[in-house]
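I'm curious: can you give me some protein's one-letter sequence along with its backbone structure tokens because I've never seen that pairing?
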Amino acid sequence: MLKEIHEQPDTLAATLAAYATAEGFREDVVAPIRQWLREAQRDIVIAASGSSRHAGLVAELLIEDRAGIHVDVEYASEYSYRSEHSLKSAAVMVISQSGETVDTLAALRKAIKADHRTLAITNVPTSTMAREASVSMPTFAGRERAVPATKSFTTQLLNLYLLSLLAGEERGVLTKPELEKLLTELSAFAEKVRQQLPLWEKTVRKIASDVAFSKAFLFVGRSVHYPIAREGALKLKESAYINSEGYPSGELKHGPNALVSKETPLVMLATVDRSDSESVERYEKVVQLMQDMRTQGATIIAVGNVGDKAVEQLADFFIPVEEASEALLTICEVIPLQILSYCMAIQNGINVDSPRNLNKAVLAE
């Protein structure tokens, strides 16, 4: 797992190179994806499970905000039993690391049977889903041996970010200069992750040793950071067998706050894209919540921007990430959370590559 965490700069670079350069998209590669998006002008349904569904929740916000296309994210295991009456006009996307997950494959086949145009994002270009979907948009993470998804998850996020840019371009919402600026940022992103990884690991190892006694965690984030909070909680559950839950930051006081204590650390995603006024507004709400939780006596682990003294001073433990566009901050946030799960598992003597009761691909319902 740790090896695969450290492979992420390379897998992000490889995935980006397959679809785009700093100058633009590789049109010969993305042409089928563009066509699928043209046919998805009204609605997109995303069916996925586990970590892949969390990636889908990020995609929902990116595509809706960037292109104005309505997106609904379903548990793949539930989609298969949904009535078709409400889904007639939708294009359907499935997301799966293996491309063989039984409930996601069943969702894809249901969509195909109902004559939906389908797109599959998998990490195995020769997988069943990749072959059977109308369009395949593989990630290039290479074989992932550890059961907990790390490099496959971040490459899914990257694919979905690229998909949102294509959707924005197709809808005429994203101008050519805006697209060029975003692709230029992307071209340097993998190296930015590479440079930060050593500090993230050093910082998180120390945090993990300091909170080793903890029996439960709460993770919170707003907007695209909420699915990352859920992913952080899932990683901790499956890797370290620690009870953990992810919530939208604004929901904390609607019940979950009863669980907050010194013994139950609160992991707060408090990054901000200061070029985005909506991101700044969300960030200010998170800082206010941090102040309230600090007064309440919570143990706070915060992921925030490098040099953010306000967040650093409110937190018991601070994990710094370099500034980036908000969509890319999701990748920078989740990698330290992956490391936290790894460290907590190792401290508990767990075989993190093969957690109990779990398999790399769920092949039976």
